[in-house]
């Protein structure tokens, strides 16, 4: 019988209540450790298609009669359109239509950031469309943009009310402290730069619109398009079988989708609207900059007595306030905590989620400050973290559902111990050091999420669910889970995903939620099929169902003997065995999080300020690991992005005009293969006993969380300099070294807060 | 303006206006979409193809400058051992940069059968991967070079 219950749902730290229907006979978790397929390294089921260039991404789709749209974006950070005339542009050869402000919600005549969409043209080719933009007659009234954060704070220009959190008595906490550390940290804006830019092709078929789009969430796009065009939801079909990266910025439909849908409706032809790289770097989201004022108090034994943090998050014109205070609130056991988060609204392009939004920034400040505290206490930084380990969720004393952080610390110990030999590498101006930082992030996933499995007469299985594989390898993980439950080799399982018309509802691929949300649903659907096979076999061969199990493509009788799966499914000829599965609720009254620690080794040239990351060790706890090979790739990818964030990447805004200066991949410095250090990683791989039929959490985001702080702490270990601002450019590094020199010359200033 | 091309061993003759890039001809005129456009201005390497075995950026190569040089795209390298090696090493995540990586790597191996880590890094530094598959790319190249995985 279906049972209706209410459960808590979390995506990237945002909680909501959710009704969910659960099945009564939930599957028991598999035993710990590698199984036949799950827990063993698997190469990607779609690896060949991608490597051979056969995989069709949105960008590769050419529909018959397809037109191309180009968008006129505001060249000003704040302005008003006094007059606009699309006539000349519309009449050019090859141009099939144009749309302006007032005709579509995503087009505005009062742009509030550079790049906001004003008008669009559709033409036979992308070149024609772009050329036509030049012929749009437009007269601007340029207005003064709000770009200065102090001015914005004074004017209380906030996107939402400042968020205050308090527990205990912060003043008493500082009064009880033997040592207090106070410092300001800054993080920069970084750009996602997925290699496939944001883009959509829309095509109307009668009352239905087909939306081919590069997205992290098919169903979110469906709902947005349905609402914008006043359509029943299932009259919008969203398709994304292969996706060229997102990292958080492709969670919603975007102006380009609405423009493509509208122009396709008007012209009666398919329309492709694609951002080019420069539009991508202005207008497709960014990790918001932060200014963090932290104050930490501790007793002489290292026990934290007070944590106080003010976060100013420069969100841009739109977006939402990410959980920047999360690490200070939740990472350590501390009775007295006070945080304030301000989401400042400026005339700059809107932020969007970027791989662990908020926690990446918040962890940098907290974990750097903790090491400054350790230095003042003359206490080992790893020991300081152990002493303040949170046994329960400090927010509300809930038990954590599966927490292996102490085990992560234990495994990191020998890597942390390397610091003695690392220091000895010092050579001339090159100083070497080691730093650590702890990771905390969500990643438990949740309902609603569904999957179907069908088993054909030839004994091959197909998983159907309208989820996405954004490059993380979820298609492969789902194949492994279904194969495990059905006792089949992975090669006999196909996963069909990426199409809302070809499978049930699935979660957003964000918040490290795909595997922990979809995996249990896929297992349940495969379990439904397995149960039916046993029932059918029991009847066919006149045995008891309970003695039958599935393994190695066979139905195995515990009393001896076995039958090939095809002997049972073949009875049905073209008949299929159909299974369905739903994701159950998360454990009631428990907090589901992921954990880890990273150890960075760096070399710093104290004469030039050059910083080289030489080695990163990472250990994370995400519950059960489905695919150790894919997991290792996720860890490496997260760390490499984090190295970019730490050392080279920075969106630069012109402070007067508000224009983005780093629009190209020449100006915006992504890490290359030559920037990659030795990376050593491992996973604790103990299933979370309370979480679903899998005990698995997500891994997309955890690895990027602690790296920057570990690098900064390693720099402090190497040089004694406090780098408190990202990215750690040579200028930043030399400034910090200079400050450290000054401190040594004037000893009484040690530990003083910067003005 | 007519252009004659040899691509992956096949001869093509087609009409292309002055200013059309090799990438546009490959992707739009010939449907060879394994070659990707990620930046369109020669900064990322996703559009890499070979001209007479030399890696070039097809998004900034005008088709009328190709002349009689043989064009090799990922479609012409589908049976190259690097393809299997990339899959085995898990050197593809979203996969958007992967064809370009393989085209560049195959030119490297043709010129240097057993490259060192530094030689791989030098040759591959123009091919960006935002997912961060770099360690696996290095491993895949070493596998094909048969040198057991670098220093």
Label the overall shape of chain A: globular
Oligomer: heterodimer
Strand content of chain A: 15-25%
- Our count of helices of chain B gives 5
**Number of separate helices of chain A:** 19
Task: Let me know the number of strands of chain A.
Answer: 27
Order of helices and strands of chain B: EEHEEEHHHH
| CATH topology assignment of the largest domain in chain A | Aldehyde Oxidoreductase, domain 4
- Amount of helix of chain B: 25-40%
Question: How many structurally independent domains of chain B?
Answer: 2
Q: Beta-strand percentage of chain B? A: 15-25%
The stretches of 5 or more residues of chain B where confidence is low (pLDDT under 50) are: none
CATH class designation of the largest domain in chain A:
Alpha Beta
What would your notes on this structure say?
The complex is a heterodimer of chains A (755) and B (151). Chain A is of the alpha+beta class and 755 residues long. Chain A folds into 3 domains: 3-57 and 445-582, 2-Layer Sandwich (Aldehyde Oxidoreductase, domain 4), CATH 3.30.365.10; 61-144 and 192-283, Aldehyde Oxidoreductase, domain 4; 290-393 and 402-444 and 589-749, Aldehyde Oxidoreductase, domain 4 (2-Layer Sandwich), CATH 3.30.365. Chain A has 19 helices and 27 strands. Chain A is globular. The relative contact order of chain A is 0.14. The model of chain A has no long low-confidence stretch (mean pLDDT 96). In chain B, helix 2 (81-89) crosses helix 5. Chain B has 2 domains: 2-76, Roll (Ubiquitin-like (UB roll)), CATH 3.10.20.30; 79-145, DNA polymerase, domain 1 (Orthogonal Bundle), CATH 1.10.150.120. The radius of gyration of chain B is 15 Å and the shape is globular. In chain B, strands 2-1-5-3-4 form a 5-stranded mixed β-sheet, covered by helices on one side. The longest helix of chain B is centred in the last third of the chain and has 14 residues, at 98-111. Chain B is α+β, with helices and mostly antiparallel strands and 151 residues long. The chains are: A alpha+beta (755), B alpha+beta (151). Chains A and B meet through helix 1 and helix 17 of A and helix 2, helix 3, helix 4 and helix 5 of B.
């Amino acid at each position: 019988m279906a049972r209706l219950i209410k459960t808590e749902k979390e995506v990237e730290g945002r909680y909501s209540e959710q009704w969910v229907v659960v099945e009564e006979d939930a599957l028991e978790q598999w035993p710990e450790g590698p199984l036949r397929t799950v827990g063993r390294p698997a190469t990607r089921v779609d690896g060949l298609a991608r490597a051979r260039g056969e995989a069709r991404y949105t960008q590769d789709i050419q529909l018959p009669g397809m037109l191309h749209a180009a968008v006129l974006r505001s060249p000003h950070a704040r302005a008003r359109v006094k007059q606009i005339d699309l006539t000349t542009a519309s009449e050019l050869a090859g141009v099939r239509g144009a749309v302006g402000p007032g005709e579509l919600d995503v087009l505005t005549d009062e742009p509030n950031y550079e790049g906001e969409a004003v008008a669009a043209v559709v033409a036979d080719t992308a070149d024609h469309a772009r050329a036509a933009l030049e012929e749009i007659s437009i007269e601007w009234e340029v207005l003064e943009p709000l770009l200065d954060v102090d001015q914005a704070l004074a004017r209380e220009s906030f996107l939402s009310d400042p968020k205050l959190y308090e527990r205990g008595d912060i003043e008493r906490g500082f009064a009880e402290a033997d040592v207090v550390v106070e410092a300001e940290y800054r993080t920069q804006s970084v750009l996602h730069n997925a290699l496939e830019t944001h883009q959509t092709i829309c095509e109307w078929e009668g009352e239905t619109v087909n939306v081919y789009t590069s997205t992290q969430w098919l169903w979110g796009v469906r709902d947005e398009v349905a609402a914008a065009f006043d359509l029943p939801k299932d009259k919008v079909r969203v398709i994304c079988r292969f996706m060229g990266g997102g990292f958080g910025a492709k969670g919603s439909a975007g102006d380009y989708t609405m423009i493509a849908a509208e122009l396709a409706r008007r012209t009666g032809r398919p329309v492709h609207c694609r951002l080019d790289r420069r539009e991508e770097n202005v207008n497709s989201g960014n990790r918001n900059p932060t200014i963090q004022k932290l104050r930490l108090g501790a007793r002489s034994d290292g026990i934290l007595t007070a944590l106080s943090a003010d976060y100013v998050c420069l969100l841009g014109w739109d977006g939402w306030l990410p959980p920047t205070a999360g690490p200070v609130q939740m990472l350590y056991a501390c009775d007295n905590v006070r945080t304030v988060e301000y989401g400042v609204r400026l005339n700059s392009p809107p932020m969007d989620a970027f791989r662990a939004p908020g926690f990446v920034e918040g962890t940098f400040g907290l974990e750097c400050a903790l090491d400054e505290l350790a230095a003042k206490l003359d206490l080992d930084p790893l020991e300081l973290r152990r002493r303040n380990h949170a046994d329960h969720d400090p927010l509300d004393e809930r038990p954590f559902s599966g927490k292996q952080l102490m085990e992560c610390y234990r495994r990191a110990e020998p890597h942390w111990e390397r610091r003695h030999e690392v220091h000895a590498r010092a050579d001339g101006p090159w100083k070497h050091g080691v730093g650590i930082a702890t990771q905390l992030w969500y990643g438990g996933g949740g309902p609603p999420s569904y999957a179907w499995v069908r088993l054909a007469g030839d004994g091959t299985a197909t998983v159907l669910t309208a989820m996405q594989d954004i490059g993380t390898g979820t298609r492969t993980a789902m194949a492994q889970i279904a194969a495990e439950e059905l006792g089949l080799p992975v090669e006999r399982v196909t996963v069909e995903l990426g199409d809302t018309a070809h499978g049930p509802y699935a979660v957003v691929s964000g918040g490290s939620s795909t595997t922990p949300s979809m995996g249990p649903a896929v297992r349940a659907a495969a379990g439904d099929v397995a149960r039916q096979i046993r029932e059918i076999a029991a009847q066919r061969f006149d045995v008891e169902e309970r003695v039958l199990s599935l393994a190695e493509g066979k139905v195995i009788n515990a009393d001896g003997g076995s039958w090939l799966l095809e002997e049972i499914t073949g009875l049905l000829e073209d008949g299929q065995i159909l299974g369905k599965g739903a994701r159950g609720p998360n454990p009631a009254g428990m907090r589901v999080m992921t954990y880890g620690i990273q150890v960075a080794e760096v070399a710093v040239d104290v004469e030039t300020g050059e910083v080289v990351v030489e080695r990163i060790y990472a250990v994370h706890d995400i519950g059960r690991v489905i695919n150790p090979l894919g997991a290792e790739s996720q860890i490496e990818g997260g760390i490499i992005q984090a190295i970019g964030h730490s050392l080279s990447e920075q969106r630069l805004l012109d402070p007067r005009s508000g224009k983005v200066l780093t629009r190209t991949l020449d100006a915006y410095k992504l890490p290359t293969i030559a920037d990659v250090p030795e990376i050593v990683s491992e996973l604790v791989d103990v299933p979370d006993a309370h979480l679903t039929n899998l005990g698995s959490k997500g891994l997309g985001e955890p690895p990027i969380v602690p790296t920057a702080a570990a690098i900064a702490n390693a720099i402090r270990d190497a040089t004694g300099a406090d780098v408190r601002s990202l990215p750690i450019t040579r200028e930043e590094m030399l400034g910090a070294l200079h400050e450290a020199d000054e401190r040594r010359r004037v000893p009484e200033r040690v530990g003083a807060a910067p003005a | 303006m007519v252009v004659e091309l040899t691509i992956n061993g096949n001869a093509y003759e087609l009409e292309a206006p002055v200013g059309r890039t090799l990438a546009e001809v490959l992707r739009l005129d010939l449907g060879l979409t394994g070659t990707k456009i990620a930046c369109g201005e020669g900064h990322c390497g996703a559009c890499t193809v070979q001209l007479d075995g030399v890696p070039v950026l097809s998004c900034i190569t005008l088709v009328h400058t190709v002349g009689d040089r043989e064009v090799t795209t990922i479609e012409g390298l589908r049976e190259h051992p690097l393809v299997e090696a990339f899959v085995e090493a898990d050197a593809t995540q979203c996969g958007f940069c992967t064809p370009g990586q393989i085209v560049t790597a195959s030119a490297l191996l043709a010129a240097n059968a057993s490259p060192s880590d530094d030689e791989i890094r030098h040759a591959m530094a123009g091919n960006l991967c935002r997912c961060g598959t770099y360690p696996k790319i290095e491993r895949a190249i070493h596998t094909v070079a048969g040198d057991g995985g670098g220093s």
